Amino acid sequence: GPFHGTIVVVHDHHVDGLADDLQMVQHEMADVITSVQHIHLSHDSCMETLVVTGPGQKITELANRLRALSGVQQVKVIVVDDHH
Known about the structure:
By secondary structure, this protein is of the alpha+beta class. Helix content is 27%, strand content 45%. The chain contains 2 helices and 4 strands, in the order E-H-E-E-H-E. A 4-stranded antiparallel sheet has the order 2-3-1-4, with helices on one face. A hairpin with a 4-residue loop joins strand 2 (33-40) and strand 3 (45-54). It is elongated, with a radius of gyration of 13 Å. The protein starts with a strand and ends with a strand.
């Protein structure tokens, strides 16, 4: 079955083009993203929480694509499965 969880991304608000890059990746991976919450942490930093559902390899691919973007400072992934 699918995995469910969150990907938390902390990034520098001032890096040129980063917001567009984040949005592009999120649109391209929309099949695993349920929702996105954007929070302003400080003048310089923002945090996005992506709720994800899907195959483990797709969630890992999404996290790795986000990590690769210039200006992304942290990416944390928490997933659970619904197998008992």
